[in-house]
């Protein structure tokens, strides 16, 4: 599951993918769903690809993604801004309080995504 949250940790976009797929391949769908006035994108090392960095530079947004070990030049990131990545982790913890999200009882991805959307709505309502 991939998610984008706003500065307060409220969900903006949620996307499902296969468990064995790389995170960076799904970044394009996430960025298309975000508002155009995004100033910075904070992510983990799974999103550290040249395509992601180039796409964010096109949007003139700051890339706050730590470099993978195999990068020849390490990117300097804002450590204070990177600490805000925990808002995404806290969002996942909130929706996993719903046992249907945490255990994934649904067999079909569409049904599971519907449950995730309902749990996301509950985050907005609280």
UniProtKB/TrEMBL annotation:
Q: What superkingdom does the record give?
A: Bacteria
Q: Which InterPro entries match?
A: Transposase_11 (IPR002559)
Positions in coiled-coil regions: none
Sequence ranges assigned to domain Transposase IS4-like in this UniProt record: 1-99
The record's annotation in NCBIfam families points to: transpos_IS5_3
- State the protein's name: Transposase IS4-like domain-containing protein
Q: Which organism is it from?
A: Hymenobacter fastidiosus
